[in-house]
Amino acid sequence: MKSTLLTRLEAGDKTLWPDNNVSANRLGWLGSPREMLDEARTLASFAESIDQGTVVLLGMGGSSLGPQVLASVRDALSDHGQRRMVVCDTTDPATVKGLPLEDAFIIVSSKSGTTLEPNVLFSYALSRVKDPARYAIITDPSTPLAQRASELGIRHRFENRPDIGGRYSVLSYFGLVPAALMGYDVGELCERALDVDRGEAVALGEDMGRAALEGRDKTTIVVDEATRSFGLWAEQLIAESTGKLGRGCIPVPTCDTETGDDRHHIRVEIAAPAELAAEFFRFELAVAIAGHALDVDPFDEPNVAESKANTVRQLSELPLTHRDSIPPEQALAAITRTVGRGDYVSLQAYLPYGNDTELEALRRRVRDENGQIAVTAGYGPRFLHSTGQLHKGGPASLVAVQLVRSTPSAEVAIPAEPYDFATLIAAQAIGDYDSLIAHDRRTIRVELDHLSELR
Length: 455
Hints:
Largest sheet: 5 strands, parallel
Structural class: alpha/beta
Number of strands: 12
CATH class of the largest domain: Alpha Beta
Low-confidence stretches: none
Number of helices: 17
Radius of gyration: 21 Å
CATH architecture of the largest domain: 3-Layer(aba) Sandwich
Helix content: 40-55%
Strand content: 5-15%
Distance between the termini: 56 Å
Shape: globular
């Protein structure tokens, strides 16, 4: 028998969430798997028409994390794929400079078409690859990005239905166009999503929300090493959806057994890449219901907009002003002095991509040296569009540790802008630091060049 909550969710009942919620124009993801099933052949034909063997996706937040997971899990669990996928959702200059653009097909992905990071990455890509036939655009209808693509003569334009928020968009064009280019069977992905036990997903969401209200708010997502990137996507979905009004589920992706009386464990097992679609849809359903249990709107993101505005303000007031920091050799002791029972630590690395192993080792070290405290780790500015909502809007149990470069990792200009990528990522870190302080969050800022300096 279908649960009442599931019936109300499928009917788009906005009274599931607090008054003035934005669900009226954010529930398109519920029907997206069935709609995209009808698009499967078209997307396969599009993928077959592309000559390049590498795809570079430029995006930020929900428009890029889904493709990142699809690429990582495919590479880990399968020995075949149609193309290599490189996702760039950072403004770190060394990472941007190293993008293999010359031999790639390039996707620019942005729901609003106004997000700063995809737009400057697009401008940079155009300075290196001018052929409009080498690009595809994924955005909502009639956005500035869509207009720009039209003016440039970019033929491959995918306009997504606008009632799907970024973090719920993986089973729409935002996730499935890249999936097709990677060699996924889009029809199979959609069918697996449609086969999800929706009642079980609703129960998962109820349990998640109830556990948080009972004090077990560290939602510990246990994944296998090969599929650890799924935790990155789930972390964004949970954090940005539930971290509001001083409440929230605090997602902690891990491949380890982590214990604590503030933990709520969810085990995720994925044996084949196509199984991702079922997990994507299961978690989307569950998190919408967790928002109901917590009495928060799972579809807005008020503090994400705040951090974006802070960055724009910093860039309008150049040169950047200094923020206090501590030497890297003092950071670990400072964390230990600061954390208390029920807290969690967020390691926020404004560093070049490629530090995953070192960053995970640091996460485990901070956890183990502080009584198995919950610790998350991620790259900035990626998390500004995801878990950053939780950091400011969720529980005040956060201890934020900003890890920023003391010297730029490379010099990379941004066409038509008065600042370069090194200045941009520094401005994003400062803007978020100011936002954390404004919300009375305990924040430790560390300037370094390598994670090995943390001793």
